[in-house]
Specification:
By secondary structure, the protein is mainly beta. Helix content is about 5%, strand content about 40%. β47 and β48 (about 615-620) form a beta hairpin. The chain has two helices and 52 strands.
Length: about 650
């Protein structure tokens, strides 16, 4: 109910005083809030900033200042609230606050542990003659409930504006409970607006405690301001809708027109344009009072110009604390980019090349090799430079402020020598030579690798005598150090080699395959050709009837020499062993004639009787056995023999019968 009465009262008073209240205030939860332009502070309390604690503000509270953790009824100034530090915290219930409301880590704020009874947190008397009559002012502050849970007493503040005699000039603002903070940025802005009477030139500003102390009611106060409040001011470049910052460059002259529109509210609105150069402070621009202000800017140094509109009711325009101001418009004079010289470039045709500019944020190239695809590249990249890319290039370098500087460079593209010739010459035989044939026009030098086997590694056509197949690399270089590289492969064909294989042994009537091997050969001939299945095959089948030596001749189809090798085939005669003889002297079958055994001069023959007694032994068989043992004829019967021909073949065993 009280809120509705307060709103009605304010609306009636403001409607009688001036017509712009509805345009510039909105309903706060407890009080009207200024939504129009604000002036420079008449009173500003930020509790200072810096490395050193500024100590208590003079006469601005009736609470007790301490330098340690405040108890009920005490306060201190801090630039952070950090549990575990000297700032302490009540049982961990306080919010961790790393900086003041503005975010300055060196900025201070007022930390209050409220008393059990209502007390004055802040009081301030404005300086004499700083206020203008019939002017709306806003009294505001930022509050943070230090308690970050739902328990405890919540801060409840009262904002009052009084005359020097204690008379309240406006219904006080009762904030109601400030909610608990979820984080360190949950600052709440509370404000109270009022209109001065015709003769008010000083007021008393107070923020008092409405809630009791005890469990809770711990808070931070910061950025307390009292300043004029006016209508909404629109401003811009050429039109009121263009508020974007402008840029120009050192040495450049540009003309600007500022436009402004002051919203409804002042009966006799008066305006002045102000200028602030490089943050050195605002000053009125002489005779710049019209809604439109046109001016040039020409500067040979980097500067920042800010413009804003001051507005006030009638003659109040002459009082710095009675004006309100628009948000500033900015114009920055930017330095020209510093662009280092780009060295001249030289590249061989077909090779990659990069040209790099620096000193800006964007680049635009022109020149013979520039296309839509690469005109804004930096670095400028040629993947494979061509003769058509050679020439002068210009790049326009633009800084972040939009200032440009151009510089030029030159790209030289040197022709690349081209090697022609025979890169796959015919093969040569080992030990032979061949002339390498390559050519490149122009004034060039030749370099061959490897140099082994070359008559002259710097000649265009050296004679090569490689010992094995060799890949020669030739590099041809021009005076511009451009080069071409090719390879020439010389295949060296080795002479044939042949091995007729190991000597062979067979019995008469048997066959054997000649196990010859050959390399680098494809034409074969055996001699003599007798008893061979194919005298032109590498491995023919031989069936000789007597010992024989075969010679293999091998050669290649590319005529790189002839190789020969021989193999001996031993042909053992077939041994025929009769199983009976009759040494009775009748001249018929009187001896044991073993056919062909005499051809085995190393052979061994042993004969045993049926009792295992040796009765005959011979090496070779030049004289056949007549059945004699110790000079006496043996009795008729069966005898057993073992023949070892000593050629690695199995022993021959059997029986023979002597018939008397």
């Amino acid at each position: 109910m009280r809120l509705h009465i307060l709103k009605l009262f304010l609306l009636v008073v403001f409607a009688l005083a001036c017509t712009f209240v509805k345009a510039q205030i909105k309903v706060h939860s407890s009080s009207p809030v200024c939504t129009g332009a604000l002036g420079d502070p008449v009173v500003s309390e930020t509790f200072s900033a810096g490395a050193a604690n500024p100590g208590p503000p003079n006469g601005e509270t009736d609470m007790l200042y301490v330098t340690t953790c405040p108890e009920d009824g005490q306060y201190t100034l801090v630039n952070n609230v950090n549990l575990g530090s000297s700032n302490c915290g009540v049982g961990g219930a306080w919010q961790l606050v790393p900086h003041d409301h503005t975010g300055d880590v060196n900025g201070y704020m007022m930390l209050i542990n409220a008393s059990y009874t209502p007390s004055v947190f802040f009081t301030k008397i404005t300086e004499p003659n700083k206020l203008c009559g019939n002017t709306i002012y806003e009294f505001s502050a930022y509050v943070l409930n230090l308690i970050h849970d739902n328990g405890g007493i919540r801060p409840n503040l009262k904002f009052t504006i009084e005359a020097l005699d204690g008379t309240q000039l406006v219904e006080p603002l009762i904030t109601g409970d400030i909610p608990p903070s979820a984080n360190a940025d949950d600052w709440v802005r509370e404000s109270l607006t009022f209109e001065t009477r015709a003769n008010d030139n000083q007021v008393v500003l107070k923020i008092t405690n409405q809630a009791p102390g005890g469990g809770g009611n711990d808070l931070l106060l910061d950025d307390i301001n009292f300043r004029a409040c006016g209508p909404i001011i629109k401003r811009g470049f050429t039109t009121i809708d263009d508020n974007q910052p402008k840029n120009q460059c050192v040495g450049e002259t540009k003309t600007y027109t500022l436009k402004q529109e002051v919203g409804p509210g002042y009966a006799d609105p008066q305006t002045r344009w102000q200028l602030n150069i490089d943050g050195n402070g605002w000053a009125d621009i002489p005779n710049a009072t019209d809604p439109s202000y046109t001016f040039p800017i020409s500067s040979n140094s980097v500067k920042t110009y800010q413009y804003r509109l001051a507005a006030a009711e009638g003659d109040n325009i002459n009082s710095a604390t009675c004006r309100v101001f628009s948000d500033p418009l900015s114009i920055t004079v930017n330095d020209l980019p510093v662009v280092p010289a780009i060295p001249l470039s030289s590249v061989c045709e077909g090779e990659p090349q990069t040209i790099t500019a620096s000193g800006g944020v964007s680049y635009e190239w022109t020149g013979p090799g520039i296309t839509d695809a690469n005109e804004n590249q930096n670095p400028l990249i040629f993947a494979a430079a061509t003769i058509a890319d050679a020439g002068a290039y210009q790049v326009t370098v633009t800084s972040a402020g939009g200032c440009t500087v151009s510089t030029t460079t030159t790209l030289a593209v040197n022709a690349k020598p081209v090697i022609t010739g025979d890169f796959n010459p015919p093969p040569i035989c080992k030990g032979a030579s061949i002339t390498l044939n390559v050519y490149a026009p122009g004034n060039v030098t030749y370099s061959w690798t490897p140099i082994a086997g070359l008559s002259d590694a710097t000649a265009p056509n050296p004679v090569a005598t490689p010992s094995d197949t060799t890949v020669y690399t030739v590099k041809v270089s021009s005076n511009a150090e451009c080069s071409d590289i090719k390879t020439v492969t010389v295949n060296v064909l080795p002479p044939p080699t042949v091995d007729a294989g190991g000597n062979k042994k067979i019995f008469e009537g048997q066959s054997v395959t000649l196990g010859a091997t050959a390399k680098n050969a494809d034409v074969y001939s055996w001699s003599p050709v007798d008893y061979l299945s194919d005298p032109t095959a590498l491995n023919p089948v031989a069936t000789p009837s007597n010992d024989i030596t075969y010679t293999l001749t091998a050669k290649s189809g590319y005529n790189c020499g002839i190789a020969t090798s021989s193999v001996f085939v031993r042909v053992y005669k077939k041994i025929i062993i009769p199983n009976t003889f009759s040494p009775n002297g009748d001249g018929v079958n009187d001896s044991w004639e073993i056919e062909a055994l005499e051809t085995y001069p190393e052979s061994s023959l042993i004969v045993f009787n049926r009792y295992g007694q040796q009765v005959f032994k011979s090496t070779g068989y030049s004289k056949p056995w007549k059945g004699i043992y110790n000079g006496k004829p043996l009795p008729g019967g069966t005898y057993y023999y073992i023949i070892d021909v000593k050629n690695g073949t199995p022993k021959l065993t059997g029986w023979v019968v002597i018939v008397n």
